[in-house]
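Write out the 3D structure for:
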Amino acid sequence: MLTVKGLVLSQKMLGEQDKFIDILTAEYGVLEILVKGSGKINSKTGSATQLFAYSEFCMNDVSRGVRILNSVKPIQIFYPLRKSVTAVALASYFSQIVLFSVLPKNGTPEILRLFLNCLHYLSEQTMTETHLKAIFELRIASLLGFMPDVVMCRNCGAYLPETIVFSVEDGCFFCEHCVPPRKRNYIMMPAGGLLAVRHIVLSDFEKIYHFRISERCEKSFCKFAEEFLSYHLDRKFPTLSYYKAISKQP
């Protein structure tokens, strides 16, 4: 038997009553579990194995390559999240990122913590979806080994230029006086955007959600977060396209 706490990232029906779920765990990365009888009216596993439920799973050892759920106890279901179509779509985008980038058997406590906290803020609606999306994208990029170099201008060493240009490809920034002549995959932003990026990738985990950014800086800041992660994962996610379509994001 294996008992572990995990967050349900995806589910796929197997016939009318059974389903496979993928869960994100701190100790083992992503695990696939077969849940038998989940489609029954009197199923005792329904709520605890639904999408975005954080639960304690007890499962049998691998049999023929499949882990079979024995019992499950819900810890946090995030019910308020389900009242918002855009919040569910954004959480689905986060799930797709994790499923693509996290390998089985790899411990991922910080990624699980990041995801759970983002679901909390989405449920409570105490932070805008736009900010949560950028936080998740930049922080998970850093956790996956793609942290951008945000200390100083790559060329002259300026710490906080008034205007900076981020290179999505190189993961660094230049002041406006040092921008290389061939502008490819560059995003210009005011100093406030750089401060926000620094805060998210360099701060202790407890502090990453506590920052402010002006409307003037927000658009370029969010654009950089999205494009930086997409470029370094070399992946376009269908759930992101859906989220942007229903939330009317550019």
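Helices lie at 85-101, 109-124, 129-143, 191-202, 215-233, 238-247.
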